[in-house]
Amino acid sequence: VQSIGAVLLLLASPAVSFQSAFLGRQQKQRRSNGSQLCMKTIAVIGASGLTASECVYQALNNGDNVVGLTRNPAKLVIPKGSGGGSAGGPLTDEKLTLIGGDVTKMEDVEKVFEAGEIDGVIVALGGKTSDVGDTMLTTGTSNVIEAMKAKGVKRLAVITSIGTGDSENQAPFFFKVLMYTAMKKIFVDKNNQEKVVQASGLDYCIVRPGGLTVDPPTGIINVIDGESGSIARADVAEFCLDAITMEDFPYIGKTPCISSVGGTSWVKDRSAKARGEEA
Q1: How far, in Å, CA of 145 to CA of 143, rounded?
Q2: Average pLDDT in the 139-145 region?
Q3: 213: β partners
Q4: How many whole angstroms separate alpha carbon 237 and alpha carbon 22?
Q5: Residue 157 DSSP symbol
Q6: I want to staple 80 with a disulfide (CB 3.0 to 4.6 A). Which of 100, 249, 269, 276 is the partner?
Q7: CB–CB of 205/156 below 8 Å?
Q8: Cα 206 from Cα 145, distance rounded (Å)
Q9: How far is it, in rounded angstroms, from Cα 279 to Cα 276?
Q10: For the sheet containing 96-100, what is the strand order?
């Protein structure tokens, strides 16, 4: 199985397709590939979230150590997308250090970088502004960047959303309506979050996924120039892990929009099923 970083083809729609390196629950020998960084420890910020838990789970299966920060450690469970029959069970591993804390508090963020020699960071923060505040994404990501610089950590992947920054026109019409109405506050925060990352001087990749699902990974990730489609959270996690582990990852310093089906329109799915809350 080739790395996600290998370009397979140019699609008829303006997208580049990558083959994911994901191998389910089988441990991968990532370090046998000369293009992979020799990872020691990966930090996942917002670790109990739906996409973040995919990052944690897959990183552990890859043989990496993980330090996770989350407000709700008890909510970290094996994800539905790549967890198979074990999905929903406790996500525990001797290679996992889980820290309960608030990303907007610098002292909590510093605990992550005191827990081990961090080699790369994935920021996968989420939540309603009514619950986490209007500036949590920007403040929290700024804290992470400051802590990374203090420890000399360079590689960073940050998950935002289709519609942020210069990808506004890649969002479907009905999602644009939400961006300027019900989701206006969160998009102000997301846009400010991206600006902080872009000004950081770090080796960053801002990942803008299309409509997120909890489906099993497809293994195909399309980098889209036009209107984006949907994508499994498991595939987003794989892309982020490659962004911080591949020495020659092609989207460092960039803001790729990704989906599993290039150019397929989608409507924001707010159902319980889309969040993995029902069978």
Answers
A1: 5
A2: 98
A3: 232
A4: 10
A5: E
A6: 276
A7: yes
A8: 13
A9: 7
A10: 7-10, 15-19, 220-224, 257-259, 203-209, 155-159, 120-123, 41-45, 65-70, 96-100
What is the rounded distance in angstroms from the CA atom of residue 36 to the CA atom of residue 31? 6
Q: How far is CA 123 from the centre of its chain?
A: 6
Q: What is the DSSP letter of 254?
A: B
Residue 87: Cβ within 10 Å count = 16
Average pLDDT of the segment spanning 61-88: 96
Q: Are 44 and 66 in contact (CB under 8 A)?
A: yes
Please answer whether residues 158 and 240 qualify as being in contact, where contact means their C-beta atoms are separated by less than 8 angstroms.
Answer: no
What is the Cα–Cα distance from 220 to 54, expressed in whole angstroms?
Answer: 16
pLDDT digits (tens, 9 = 90+) for 10-32: 222 345 555 443 333 233 444 44
DSSP states along 34-55: TTB----EEEEETTTSHHHHHH
CA distance 103 to 9: 39
